[in-house]
Design brief:
The chain contains two helices and five strands; from the N terminus they run H-E-H-E-E-E-E. It is an alpha+beta fold and about 90 residues long. The chain has a domain of about 60 residues. It is elongated and about 70 Å long.
């Protein structure tokens, strides 16, 4: 490392220290009262989810946050499972 790059690195470090001291940024607190707690609900649906079921979940305050599809498993020409959709919802407690 050259003297110039060492100097610039040191200067950057000092600038960061001074900036942190001047602009006192509060730490995040995970246990604060404003932290939203969530209730989760996941369901395995064979085939395609029905719109009425999704509307019911929405009416109960749930929001879809994850969707995974498992393709059908075929052995010797026969379906042996899979083909389901896994849905996960959340809502504030």
């Amino acid at each position: 490392m050259t003297k110039t790059s060492t100097f610039l690195l040191s200067l950057g470090f000092l600038a960061g220290c001074v900036t942190t001291a001047l602009f006192n940024v509060p730490r995040a607190h995970a246990d604060s009262a404003s932290l939203t707690r969530w209730e989760h609900w996941c369901v395995d649906v064979d085939g395609t989810p029905k719109n009425a079921d999704l509307e019911k979940a929405g009416a109960e305050g749930f929001e879809l946050v994850s969707l995974a599809f498992r393709p059908p498993v075929v052995q010797n020409g026969n379906s042996v499972g899979g083909g389901a959709t896994y849905l996960c919802f959340k809502r504030p407690r």
